Amino acid sequence: TMNTTRQVLSYTSTAAASSAAGTSRAYGLADLDSRTVVASLVGATGGTLDVYLQTSHDGGTTWYDWAHFVQLTAGNAAIKQAFHQGRDNNAGVTTIGTAATPALAASTVVGGGWGDMMRLAFTAGVSTSAGAAISVQLIGNRNS
Fold first, then answer.
1. Which pLDDT belongs to residue 97?
2. How high does pLDDT run on average in the chain?
3. 77-90 pLDDT, tens digit each
4. What band does 92 get if pLDDT is binned at 50, 70 and 90?
């Protein structure tokens, strides 16, 4: 039997050129066998926007990049991006960032084991004058 859970991370990105983390968190993810991620993305006003999904293995003290969606242009129309990831899908060595200094390349998923928590992080480009409402669904599956 497979049990499915669903959590949504929603946050409005920063309204100026900077990096920042969202305040909403997804919890209880450590025992999931696989996960589907569905992101509803839209560009910020005036500058590019990078949206990251970060994970924590230590209860939220330290955060690491886990996924970086496509870079959004200023005023980018609403798009959806999705991917499915199992614990056994592990990519090669990848440069990542931590906390509010994300560094994972655009359109990249690190893969493999994620921590017990997830959050969103954003980097808004030069000339950004208004943030964008971002929503990411985390649909987890447990084999039992």
1. 84
2. 91
3. 999 999 998 877 66
4. low
Q: How does pLDDT run across 48-79, given as a tens digit for each residue?
A: 999 999 999 999 999 999 999 999 999 999 99
5-9: long-range contacts, CB 8 A cutoff, minimum separation 24:
5/32, 5/139, 5/140, 5/142, 6/137, 6/138, 6/139, 6/140, 7/137, 7/138, 7/140, 8/135, 8/136, 8/137, 8/138, 9/53, 9/118, 9/119, 9/120, 9/135, 9/136, 9/138
Cα(136)–Cα(138) distance, rounded to whole angstroms?
Answer: 7
Task: Please report where in the chains the tokens 């409402």 appear, as a residue.
Answer: 133
If you write DSSP's letter for every residue of 20-47 in order, what string do you get? EE-S--B---TT-SEEEEEEEE-PPBSS
Other C-beta atoms closer than 10 Å to the C-beta of 108 total 18
Asked if 68 and 97 touch (Cβ cutoff 8 Å), the reply is no
Give whole-number Cα distances, 114 to 45, 49, 54, 130, in Å. Answer: 32, 24, 9, 31
